[in-house]
Amino acid sequence: MSFSHEKLIVYQRILVFNSKVSLWLLSLTLISIQFFASGCKKQDVPLNEAAAWQWPVMGTLASLTVRGDAPDTALMLAKAALEEVNAQLSVFNPASNVGQLNVAAGMDVAIRLHPHTQHMLDVSIQYCRDSGGAFSPLVGPLMEAWGFFRGGEGRAIGVPSAEVIADAQRLCDLSRVERRDDGTARLLDVGMKLDFGAIAKGYGVDVAFERLLAANYTNVLVNLGGNMRAQGVPSPERKAWRIAIRDPRLTLADQPLGTVLLGEGRAIATSGSYEQYFEWEGKRYSHIMDPRTGFPVSDEVLQVTILAPTAMAADALSTTCFVLGAEAGMKYLARQPGCEALFVVSGGKGSFSVSMTEGFKAVFEASPPHTGAQKNDCKTD
User: Fold this and answer.
1) How many angstroms separate the CA atoms of 325 and 230, rounded?
2) CA-CA distance, 194 to 245, in Å (whole number)?
3) Is 70 left (phi over 0), alpha (psi -120 to 50) or beta?
4) What was the pLDDT predicted at 277?
5) Residue 165 in 3-state DSSP?
6) By C-alpha distance, which of 175, 169, 186, 173 is closest to 107?
7) Concatenated DSSP letters for 100-144?
8) At CA 197, angle to CA 133 and CA 259, rounded to 5?
9) 376 band by pLDDT with thresholds 50, 70 and 90
């Protein structure tokens, strides 16, 4: 089976069923082409046409688009990389390295860190310090308190009490993570929960991407839950991969806000408040948590899209800048080399304004949409 990139549109969708039950579903829909319902299969395609697959991993759906020889081998490399990262970083698997740390929280038991976990912890601590605490890999207890944690017992009804929030915040203190010179670590307090959900998917994309490049695949797009990184071009006639940015007022099937060109190893990620939330006494509470206050972020920012040299950076920075807000987020981003941003800020009554860094403006093209674009939507944190 073969198809041209112009006929390929990938949609990512998160469905929130109601305000009491924090259930969601992430799916990628391939439009205008027949896709393999049974999952990953080999595709025999001409050299100048792209092959594409999707499969579930890390609590979301991954997709790989690759042009060149032996695309099935590229698929195996990408799948193996993502499974490897998930096996160590999954917060839902008690046998993973992160799961072992969480199970042993509060015990006098040190867990040896896998290189993936060690790297994620090092980078997360740095983002936490640089952002003044706006980013935290220990925000799990707060997510549980507000009913957003996907492994929890279900949605809490209403806003947690000040006491519950304060108790959860005490478990988000990075100083209570003990690192030892022998490569082990432990969480000092019962109830602490390490969760790299705001950075691990981007990191997984990077691991897969780098292994594909090391195997001489030079025209690839790796996508994990909206975290994307690209190299080369989808076809000889194209300049780069064209990525569509969702309009936060509209559905995924509607006209996007605009598109950006992605390539040369750069990555993109978007955080938005419009998918996972609940309403209580006339106020909407988003799933994106501010660790500094213990509350979900305000309704000021609707969406943040980040372009960065790596998917890990784009992933972490989209959440961090969302928490910081547009003004502080722009100042913070100015200290991040090679990173650009688009902020969508609410103007009230369904209106919004858009602000971009100069580097983002250089690759952004406003709607109307382009049929060759791939949808980049809200990642799950």
Assistant:
1) 28
2) 30
3) left
4) 62
5) helix
6) 186
7) HHHHTTTSS--EEPPHHHHHHHHHHHHHHHHTTTSS-TT-HHHHH
8) 95
9) low
User: For the CA atoms of the chain, what is the radius of gyration?
Assistant: 20
In eight-state DSSP terms, residue 208 is H
Nearest one of 97, 89, 348, 42 to 203, comparing CA atoms: 89
For 239-293, the pLDDT digits (tens) are 899 999 988 876 666 778 899 999 999 999 999 876 666 666 667 777 889 999 9
How does DSSP classify residue 378?
Answer: B
| Element spanning 76, H or E | helix 71-89
Helices (runs of H) and strands (runs of E) counted in the chain: 9, 21
pLDDT at 179: 96
**Burial per residue of 89-114, b for 16 or more beta-carbon CB atoms within 10 angstroms, e otherwise:** bbbeeeebbbbbbbebbeeeebbebb
Q: Kind of pairing, strands 241-245 and 374-376?
A: parallel
Distance CA 187, CA 189 (A): 6
The two three-digit tokens of residue 115, written as one number: 């290189």
The predicted structure's pLDDT at residue 10: 30
pLDDT in tens, 161-191: 999 999 999 999 999 999 999 999 999 999 9
Predicted TM-score (pTM) of this structure: 0.83
Q: What type of residue is 52?
A: A
